[in-house]
Write a structure and sequence with these properties.
Structural class: alpha/beta
Strand order of the largest sheet: 1-2-4-3-5-6-7-8
Order of helices and strands: EEEHEHEHEHHHHHEHEHH
Radius of gyration: 17 Å
Oligomer: single chain
Shape: globular
Largest sheet: 8 strands, mixed
C-alpha cells in the first residue's frame, strides 16, 4: 500500500507499507532509486511476519523536492519520520545512499533494533571518494543533471551483474529531481555529512554488512577494512542491487538477522 505523509511544511514523503507485524523493517533505497526497489522483499514469505516500510527519500520517487539535499538533511528527515510513525525501534535496512543515512541515524542516537548496510562504504571527513567508490565506472552518471536515453540505460544496467529488466530503474531515474543531482554532490564536498569512518569504528549497534562481488560502484575492500565491531558480514555473487539479483539468499539472511536482533531486544 502506497501512502503519503506531510512530514512538515517543507517535506512530503511517499512510502510503501506491507504487513502488520509488531516489529518493523524500515527500508531506505539508494541514489536515483525509489521504494519500489524493495519489491522482492515486500513479496518475500521469509519476511511476512514483519511490518515492512519503504520510503521514497526526498527528491526521489513520489516524495517532494525540498530546498535541501545533503546527507544531514536526509538523516534528520528520516529521523523525524521514525519519531512520528513508530513507537518501537525498527530494524533499518539501508541500500547505498540509504546505508549512509542509516549510519547518520545510528550516530545521532535514533533508537533502532539493528542495522543492515548494503553496499555502503563509510565516508571520512573530508570525503574520500576515491577510496569509497569505483570512479572509473558509471558512478558519475548518478549526479549528471541531464542524461541521454543511452546514459540512463547504462546507469540502470550497471546496477546488476547480469542482464536484468531495468524498467523500474529507468522510471526511478526519471523521477529524480534535478535539484538533488546538482546540490547533493556539492554538499558532500562541503562536508555536510558525519565522519562515518570514525564513527563506525566504535558503533555498538547490531549490524549486518552486505556487499556485492560484482558491484560497479562501490569499493568493497574499503567496506571490509572498516567493519564495525561485532558485525555480521555477507558477500553475494551479484551486482549493486544485490537485494534483487540475489533476493532469495538476501531475504533469508535478512530474516535470520531480524529474528536475532528482535529476540535480543525483547
Amino acid at each position: 500500500m502506497l501512502k503519503v505523509m506531510a512530514l512538515n511544511s517543507d517535506v512530503t514523503l511517499s512510502y510503501s507499507v506491507a504487513g502488520d507485524g509488531p516489529e518493523t523493517l524500515l527500508m531506505l533505497h539508494g541514489s536515483n532509486q525509489s521504494s519500489s526497489t524493495f519489491a522482492a522483499q515486500f513479496q518475500s514469505s521469509a519476511l511476512k511476519k514483519y511490518k515492512l516500510i519503504a520510503l521514497d527519500l526526498p527528491h526521489h520517487g513520489h516524495s517532494s523536492s525540498p530546498a535541501h539535499a545533503s546527507m544531514l538533511h536526509f538523516t534528520t528527515t528520516v529521523a523525524e519520520f521514525i519519531k512520528q510513525t513508530m513507537t518501537t525501534p525498527p530494524l533499518i535496512v539501508g541500500l547505498s545512499l540509504g546505508g549512509h543515512i542509516t549510519l547518520g541515524l545510528m550516530a545521532s542516537g535514533i533508537p533502532m533494533a539493528g542495522a543492515v548496510l548494503i553496499a555502503t562504504p563509510p565516508a571520512a571527513k573530508p570525503i574520500n571518494m576515491a577510496e569509497m567508490f569505483r570512479l572509473d565506472g558509471p558512478m558519475g552518471l548518478l549526479y549528471k543533471n541531464e542524461m541521454s536515453a543511452t546514459e540512463k540505460q547504462t546507469l540502470a544496467k550497471a546496477l546488476y551483474a547480469q542482464q536484468w529488466n531495468t524498467e523500474q530503474e529507468l522510471k526511478d531515474i526519471d523521477l529524480v529531481a534535478p535539484f538533488y543531482r546538482t546540490h547533493f554532490p556539492t554538499s558532500l564536498m562541503a562536508g555536510e555529512h558525519i565522519d562515518e569512518q570514525e564513527f563506525i569504528s566504535r558503533a555498538n549497534c547490531k549490524t549486518l554488512i552486505v556487499t556485492a562481488e560484482y558491484d560497479h560502484f562501490v569499493n568493497n575492500a574499503h567496506i571490509v577494512r572498516h567493519l564495525p565491531p561485532g558485525a555480521v558480514y555477507k558477500n553475494y555473487q551479484a551486482g549493486h542491487n544485490l537485494h534483487q539479483e540475489a533476493a532469495s539468499q538476501f531475504n533469508t539472511d535478512l530474516a535470520t538477522f531480524a529474528a536475532e536482533v528482535f529476540q535480543r531486544r525483547g
